[in-house]
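Protein Entry — a single chain follows
Next Lines — sequence and tokenised fold
***
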Amino acid sequence: MPRKQSNHRPSGGGFGPAVGEPPPWVDPRRWGSLIGLAGGMWFIAGYSPSLGPVVSVAALIAGLGLVGAALFFHYVRPVALGPLARPGLMALLTYGACVVGELVLISLGSQGLTATGHADLRPALIAAVVGLHFIPFAWAFGERMFYLLGSLVAALGTVGLLVGVMGVPRAADAMAVTAGLVMQVVILLYARGRFAPRPTLRPTA
């Protein structure tokens, strides 16, 4: 009777050139995740104080816990993330264009908010733009995680802008802090291999 076997290694190991995945300590995807973790903490530490000491301390503890968990699963108990897709020239150009576009949009958007008397909504604007700039990375680096990460962060930033314009106090800060926590949750899921390619089964004789 034919039996089925996976044509991918188990998610718990098998790093190295033979399987297309660098060792964890030199994997650029894992190091790149550190930027996202730092960005999440920047949102949390920068904007949670306006929400009061209780919320601020709780958010900081949660953020640091998520960072620690992501680092643990990235480097102490790593699982496979899938073969590394080496970015080509167009991918690198896309990355550079997204970063430049992010800075330009934040600058222009901040000027617009200040001109209309809504400078306090800048945290939500930054979250929305940061989320948008993540989305093209999914194509550029072959990592579908960026679709979820970018969409969630952009949506939270947009909600903060809309609710803030309606006059809800500290809505922008609250959504920016939430966006920071969401960034860390998604990166933790990534570190756990939740976005790795699923094993495909094929019959063998």
